[in-house]
Amino acid sequence: MEELRLGVIEGKFADIIWENEPISSGMLVKICEQKLEWKKSTTYTMLKRLCERGLFQNEDGVVTSLMSKEEFGAAQSEKIIEETFAGSLPAFLAAFASRKKLSKAEVDEIQKMIDQIREG
To answer: Does 100 share its domain with 49?
Structure first.
């Protein structure tokens, strides 16, 4: 995947697909007309762009995702950590925790994840 970031409008469009897939391209056009006030050509242009970026596919008029919203979010996070913190998750967590106080529940959840990884 070449570009993991989505603009605001691309994100709204991607959410429509994720929330409705599998969806016919015709129904996608109708939803985008209602929610985004797009013309048919705008929907197809955006769909083609996000298909070329490896996010969705349009086969025989049926649009489906190649990457779930959760997978996309995880890939975005990995890229940010790689670019900003030289791939160091501990450095990212330290920076995050210094700006936002973690709740006890969040700390417990992180500890549980660490314990699960250690147990294999």
So the answer is: no
